[in-house]
Amino acid sequence: MDVKKIAKLAHLEITDEEAAVYSPQMAKIVGYVEQLNELDTGDVEPMLGGLTAAGEATDAIREDEARESLGTEAALSRAPASTDGHFQVPKVL
Amino acid sequence: MLKNEIERVLTNAERLNDRLGSFLSIEREHALARAEAIENASGELPLRGVAVAIKDNICTKDIRTSCGSRILANYTAHYDATAVERLNAAGAVTIGKTNMDEFAMGSSNENSAFGPARNPWDPERVPGGSSGGSAVAVASGVVDVALGSETGGSVRQPAALCGIFGLKPTYGRISRYGLVAFASSLDAIGIFGSSAGKIADVLGVIAGRDPLDSTSADVAVPDYSAMLDGSLVGKRIGVPRAFFGEGLDEEVRAAVEESIANFRKLGCEVVDVELPHAKYGIAVYYIIATAEASSNLARYDGVRYGVRAEDAHELRQMYFKTREQGFGPEVKRRIMLGTYVLSSGYYDAYYAKAQKVRALVRDDYKAAFANCDFVLTPTSPTTAFRLGERSDDPLAMYLSDIYTVSANLAGLPAISIPCGLSSEGLPIGVQLFGNYWAEGELLNAANIYGSEHPLDAKPLIHAE
Lengths: 93, 464
Fold this sequence. Notes:
The structure holds 2 protein chains of 2 kinds.
Chain A: H1 3-9, H2 16-33, H3 53-57, H4 72-76, E1 82-83, E2 86-87
Antiparallel strand pairs in A: 1-2
Chain B: H1 2-20, E1 23-26, H2 28-40, E2 51-55, H3 82-89, E3 93-98, H4 132-139, E4 145-150, H5 156-162, E5 165-168, E6 188-193, H6 196-206, E7 236-239, H7 250-265, E8 269-272, H8 281-296, H9 315-326, H10 329-342, H11 348-369, E9 374-378, H12 394-398, H13 405-410, E10 414-421, E11 427-434, H14 439-452
Parallel strand pairs in B: 2-3, 2-4, 7-8, 7-9
Antiparallel strand pairs in B: 1-3, 4-6, 5-6, 5-10, 9-11, 10-11
Helix pairs in contact in B: 1-2, 6-14, 8-10, 8-11
C-alpha cells in the first residue's frame, strides 16, 4: 500500500516518518477487513444507507420556497480570511 | 432556587475537571443566565432546570464546538443542533461541552486534541469513547444526563466502562441536524443517564421528525417516561452464544451471565439466537465508516471556517498544511483508509462488499427479532483499560467495539446497563438490542434492571 500516494489523494501532507508508522498499521487493518471475502455475497442486495423501512417511507420532500439564509456577514464571520464579501484564499497558481 | 442548583452543578464540574478532563468548556455565564431566564419562565417545561452536558460535536449557538480537534479549535456554530434546540425549549440548561475523541474517532477518548478524559472509577484508566467526556460527566455525578453520539458504539461502550446507562436510539429517531458528520449512514445522537428514567425524559423531548434532517423518520414519539412502569414478565431475551467466546474477559462474562440469570428472575424467557454475520461487524464498520468519513471530512480545508495553516502561500499547499496540522493521527489514518477503500479499482472489493455484508448483519437481527423481544450481549469485551495501553495498536482499539457496532450497521436501538463490578472495582455493562423504534421497551427493561440490581459502589472521584 502506497501510503504517501493515498495521503496525497486525501489532501494530507505526511512525512516519511509518519508514512513508516501508518503503513504497517493500515496494512494490518486492511488485512483484517479482507476477511469479508470469506462470504459469498453474489445474490445479496446491498444496504445502501442507514435508513429503516419507516425512514425510507418518510416523505422528505418539501416545497421549493424561498427562505431566509445565513447572510454574507455571518457566513464570512468564521472564515480564516475574507475580503469584499468573499472567502479569501492564498494564490491559486 | 434554580440558580443555586445550577451554581452547584457548575462548581462540581469545575472542581472535578482537573482530575477528570470531562469538559472541554464549562459555560458558567451562559448556564447561570439560562437558569435565571427559566426560573422566570411560565408554562409547562418538561426539563425545567435540568442540567445537561453536550458532546462537543453537537452544535451549540455561540458556544464553541471543537469536535475535540485542533482544526475546529476556534469554531463556534451559528445555530443550535435540533436536539439542543429542543432541550432548550424544554427548559434544560447546558452546563458545558464535553471531551471526545477527535471527530468521534476512537474508543478511549485518548484521541482528543485537548487531552484525555479519565475514568472516575480509576483515573489511570480510560472512560471509553468516543463520547468519553459525556460519560464521565454523568458517572462522576456532575449531571444526570448528557448527550453523546454514536457511529459505532461511542455511547454504549463508555457507558459500560463508566458504570452508567447509555442509549443509542434507532437510526432516524433523533435529528442529526447540527451533529457534526462522521459517517452519515451510521451516525446517531445518543443519551447517557444516571438512570433509564433520566434518559426517557430527554429522549421524549428530542426525538421525532425534523425537516432539517431528511433521514429523521416520521414515526410517532411515545411517552417514554410513561412506559417505565411496565413489567418484563414473558419477555423473550435472545442470547447469541457465539458472542461469549474468544476475546471476552472472564469477569465480564461472569457478570453478564449473572445478569441473564437476573433477567430470568424478573420473568424473562431466555432463548438462543444466531447472528452468524455479527462477527464481520468490525470489518464492515471500518470500511463504511472510514469511506464516509473521508468524504465528510473533506470539508475541513481552511477556507470557510476552522483553523488555517499560517505558513502556506499557495492554495493547494494551504489545503495540505491545514489538514496536516489540524488533524490528529487517528483521523488521518481513517481518512486515508477511507480514501483507499474508495479509490479507483478497490470500490467493489471493499465498499460495495461491505454494503452487502451490512445487509446480512441487518437481516440476522431481523430474523432474531421474529423470535425474541431483546438481544442480549456484553457491551464491551473488557473493563476499562489503562491510558496508553492500546494507543499503538489501532486494530486492538477497534476491537473494543466488537459487540456494539452491529446496532449501528443495522440501525437498531440498543442500551448499555450497568451489571456489576470487576474484582478491581471496575464497572461492567450488559447490552440489550431492541427492534426498530423499541426505545421504550429498552428503557423499561433497563429501568427495571437498574432498580432491582443497582451498582453497590460509587466511583472514586464523585461530586458528592
